[in-house]
Design goal:
It is a single chain. This protein is an alpha+beta fold. Among the domains are: about 90 residues; about 130 residues, no CATH class. It contains ten helices and 16 strands. A five-stranded mixed beta barrel has the order 6-11-12-14-16. The chain has a three-stranded antiparallel beta sheet with strand order 3-4-5. β4 and β5 form a beta hairpin. The N and C termini lie far apart (about 65 Å).
Length: about 400
């Protein structure tokens, strides 16, 4: 068998290396110039810099490709070659525009489509858009950290300024935290923290696990708890891909269509999740695996929940959640990015972070008040999730954490 033997022109390889080095120095210099306080000057440098830096990047790659030869004719398509140059210039312009900001969060824009199918004729397709912005702000003394986020299917509805102001204010308020004794406290969880805990319920709502005695929803003496009260009567938890706040994928990854499904209504467990296999075996209708989750909220803001609290702890969000007891959905985890002491209806101190041991089922049975529900920008599990803020009693903080 014959093989083509490639060759490289060392002079062209050296030329591409020199151009890459020059482009790097140009990039560092332009990053300073585009930050000019005079808008017209900054714009001129941005346009000129995009052309210069983008052309340098493109030239480095193009000359590098020219250095490679084979014993057959190679050619280039003019249209694609020009398009590759435009892409390099546009990328350079975006990079230079980003350097004009003193600080950046994690903005994400996405538009995409997802399809699945099989040889038996099943086919499902879904298009979606998403704008997501998360921001963590640390204070210069290293003692304060604040976090905020926004997420929406419509970019125009994402309030980046509000996200930034919230994160900055939390960082300032959380400076120089003090320690208080761990224990059971009245807690106000912001929606993100509620989502991290409550979303865990869906992981344990499998009907087969309950029927086989391996679930928090096993009934004493046999069977499952469907129809029984498992939470405060103000708790309603459901999935609905058509809900305006959710707008999730309307099918699961087995191709099952998904509509509105109520899991908990007024504190009563209404149904569990049935796979195709277990539904057929039990003579039930398969539910499909939900792609969204929403807990109905109230009308109060977080500020109003704080005003109604004599003494408690405000938690911005949770992280590093790990299972302790699957039979009760008991998890351990840590608070982060803004934990505060509430006294007589006002925030009085920044607190050191805590480790906690808590179950969403315990939490939802100790409910005192519900705040407004809002779309979350990313729980530990991800997905399209809407949760309210809430106030609950006897939240179990077990120890202090050194983390900021």
């Amino acid at each position: 068998m014959d093989f083509f033997t490639p060759r490289y022109d060392p002079l062209l390889v050296l030329a591409s290396l020199l151009i890459a080095t020059l482009a790097s120095f140009v990039a560092m210099d332009l990053a300073r110039r585009v930050r000019s306080e005079e808008p017209q000057v900054a714009l001129a440098w941005l346009i000129g810099g995009s052309l210069a830096m983008g052309s340098g990047i493109w030239s480095m790659h193009f000359i590098g490709m020219m250095a490679f030869t084979l014993p057959i004719a190679l050619g280039y398509t003019l249209g694609l070659t020009v398009l590759s140059w435009l892409a390099a210039v546009a990328s350079a312009g975006l990079a230079l525009a980003i350097t004009r900001h003193d600080a950046l969060g994690l903005p994400r824009l996405a538009a995409g489509a997802l399809a699945i199918g099989n040889s038996t004729g099943m086919f499902a397709y879904h298009r979606s858009t998403n704008a997501n912005y998360t921001l963590t702000v640390r204070t210069t003394d290293g003692t304060g950290s604040g976090w905020a986020a926004g997420d929406h299917a419509d970019w125009a509805q994402l309030d980046a300024r509000r996200v930034a102001e919230t994160a900055v204010n939390k960082a300032r308020l959380s400076q120089k935290p003090v320690a208080i004794e761990p224990g059971r406290y009245t807690v106000i969880l912001e929606p993100q923290a509620v989502g991290d805990l409550v979303q865990l319920i869906a992981n344990y709502a499998d009907a087969r696990s309950a029927d086989e005695g391996r679930s928090p929803f096993v009934k004493q003496g046999g069977g499952n708890k469907v129809g029984e009260k498992i939470a405060d009567e103000r708790v309603t938890l459901y999935s609905d891909p058509a809900d305006p706040q959710l707008l999730g994928r309307p099918w699961d990854f087995e191709g099952m269509p998904l509509g509105r499904q109520v899991w908990i209504e007024n504190g009563v467990l209404k149904q569990l999740i049935y796979s195709r296999f277990w539904a057929k075996k039990q003579g039930k209708t398969p539910t499909g695996g939900p792609s969204t989750l929403k807990m109905a909220g109230g009308t109060q803001s977080v500020e109003e929940l704080i005003k109604g609290t004599t003494r408690g702890i405000l938690v911005t969000r949770l992280w590093y959640l790990r299972e302790v007891d699957p039979r009760t959905i008991l998890y351990t985890g840590l608070t982060r990015d803004g934990t505060f002491l509430i006294e007589n209806g006002a925030i009085t101190k920044s607190l050191r972070n805590f480790r906690f041991n808590e179950s969403p089922l315990f939490l939802l049975n100790n409910l005192e008040a519900l705040g407004r529900a809002e779309r979350l920008a990313g729980t530990e599990q991800g997905g399209d999730v809407v949760m309210p803020s809430l106030r609950a009693r006897d939240f179990n903080f077990t120890s202090l954490s050194e983390a900021v």
